[in-house]
Amino acid sequence: MADQRLKRALEALLHPLAAIVLGLAVGALAIWAVGGSVADTYTQMWNGAFGSAYFAGETLTRAIPVALAGLGVAVAFRSGFFNLGGEGQMVLGAMATALTALYLPGPGWLKLLAGLFAGAAAGALWSWFAGWLEVRFGIQLVISTLLFNYIADLFASYLAGGPFKDQTGQGALNQTPMIEPSARLPKLSATSDLHAGLFVVLAAVVAVWLWFRFTALGYELRMYGSNRAFGQYGGLRESRMMAWAMAVSGVLAGLAGAVMVLGFQYRFIDNSLTDPQYAWVGLMAALLANANPFGVAVASLLFAALQTGGMGVELNTNVPMQISSIIQYVVVLLVSVKVGHWWVRRRRRQTQA
Amino acid sequence: MNKLLEMRNITKWYGDHLANDRVDFDLAAGEVHALVGENGAGKTTLMKILYGMERATSGEIAIRGEVVRIHSPADAIRHGIGMVHQHFMLFPPFTVAENVVAGREPSRQGWFDRRRAEADVRDLCRRYRLELDPRRRVADCPVGIRQRVEIAKVLYRGADIIVLDEPTAVLTPLEVRDLLATVRHLAEQGKGIVIITHKLHEVMEVADRVTAMRQGRVTGRLLARDTNVEELSRLMVGRELASVVRPPARPGPVVLAADSLFLLGEGGKPKLNHVSLAVHRGEIVGIAGVSGNGQSELLRALTGDLPVDGGRISLLGRDITHLSVRERRLAGMAYIPEDRQHTGSAGVESVRDNAILGHHRRPEFQRCGWLRGRRIDREVESWVRRFGVRTPSLQAPAHSLSGGNLQKLVFARELAAGAPLLIAAEPTRGVDVGAMEFIHSELVKYRNEGGAVLLVSSDLNEVLALSDRILVMYDGAFTGELSPEEADEERVSLLMVGGVRSG
Predict the structure, then answer these.
(1) Domain A58-352 has CATH 3.30.300
(2) What pLDDT does A172 receive?
(3) ipTM, 2 decimals?
(4) Fewest C-beta in 10 Å: which of A170, A302, B153, B486?
């Protein structure tokens, strides 16, 4: 029995590992094409990502929002829904967190907890709303969640540039005032930016795993996600499944925004969450990991390492840092072939039903 | 005798599992040779070896007396071997002609020559008496026609040896009749035909020779005219099959009642036209009919998957017309769906997880929303044992189970709750003889213990063997009710095609 589980786990790993190896191979080809040394470039990339406590800390810091957003996608995906709205949910979560931590009266620890809660709640509501629209009016999730990103981003931009704009200091930036030090997530490292958001990620990974494996609701979502017709036959209602899957997915995306505000930026800064594409990298991580929560954490770390490592490459060799993007996109391309296949098969099943 | 095909001494090991043990098989031109056996007996493996999908561990294959090597389906096709798989491999959005010629399209100056493709297919159909409209989209064709397209495809590629894998599993009785006629006709034209099946009545009807297999070995090689169904099933199962023993029914109070159910279909034609029925405690009510006459809609309406446009459904006296699937299940309805793979299970999930859907909210199985893993394991373990589900472990994915075992698992899940009503749709479709025997006896046992069963099956023999009352459905309504004494195949068949109303 344990044997079989191990075998299944190894089989599940085979595809993503192959994608990564192939991605690195194509990267090597690209390095060779621009006249760099493959061995040297990859060494620099490794050093740039994990070469010292500082670089390792930066990589981990970058992986935090990616992993949380990725977990959000994974929860929806496992339940049979596509949540492409991670970015908007993250941005709204960040804004809700910043405003709560700024304006809620009380001691710092209360602001911190309330901030986390507000971020999670904002993400959940925004995500749930998209699900409700599909149940109520048949507006497809793939469309609504995608477009909701623009609404959320622009709305948060407006708040950060208008009513809640920090009027002190550099007026050019659209950002809220700083939250007070006692309401911040503690730093974990003297040199790098690594913060206690890491623990939020670890807790979320374990919680998602436990939830799917050991709770009745997680079980229902898993069955529903594996075979919708089977779920409905077993008495699971689509409206309820979608509400839960989307809300929990939104909680995780919202938390990604919340920890960025409370642990990294200490304020809401316009475009600071969208420019690095945390949510989209998280989506890729979820796909690469086939929605396994532990896998999402590892894949997030991998993608973050490619990014920070890419900077090391740019600094120390003549190879441009876009080499990282090449690797990343080759990996994602290979993974999405499988996902596309899954999606088409699923559509077909639904139309047959 | 002129041998089209000879397979000699074929042995196939999968790891340490012996799937074929020194099997000999041969086929003459103009012959229909049936290969029978339970699931897992090795007949599909043998044919996969022939078609180049698997390689034999040892043994040889000769075609027209010449030893050949077949390493891939392409090799097999080159040697004139064609296979019609159980699951069709067609492109539904394309037309019949396009599907038939796919892979060998006629072309003119590099462009697909549709007119010639259609003409070719028309010729082919005339020659082999296949009724097909080359311009029809496959997506619009019923299952029986799709299968004909598969056969045409194989013929178009010039196959002389045609293997049909469980061809009747998905067909209605009328379609089966057409198929068997086609098979006979192809044989008369000099084709050699292998038909893999476990429906023995069909074998007796169509085959010239029969090879029976059990546990990887050939257990009998007979001329069809020298044998009978009983002998063949003994060779397949290795023992006598008990026929269903059914003590007289002692019906109690009504469990399920449907009153004048009405459902409008597309184009204003009713799918269910004022259908009423009652199922009592301790009886099996069978619904016979050619599939597509409203049985699916009736099932969906009764189980809560499809809201009706009129009428009333009650369960144990309680109005359930507007209750959800879940509420109906809680009210005492168990349901074995028509399609165990598409609806009845989630293939990638474990046997354990598949076994508890619908029960998972019971207090024994969860406390405050947390599943009680050990209790569940213990319970599912006992169901698996009681229903003889052969599975490597509770953690094995459901799709690793054979059809019969998966169906037993579905059965176990639905009977485990002790629900007073069981709706069983096609409970033995595509399962082997052993599993069928088991499921039938369990159904009768459940009924003897006071359960109410509504049985819907397109297998007329099944309905006749099990039912205490038989309702015949045609065109969205019941055309008659018969007792098992007055129901014979002929009478029911007549009602199934809309013949005289009786009673």
Answers:
(1) no
(2) 72
(3) 0.83
(4) A170
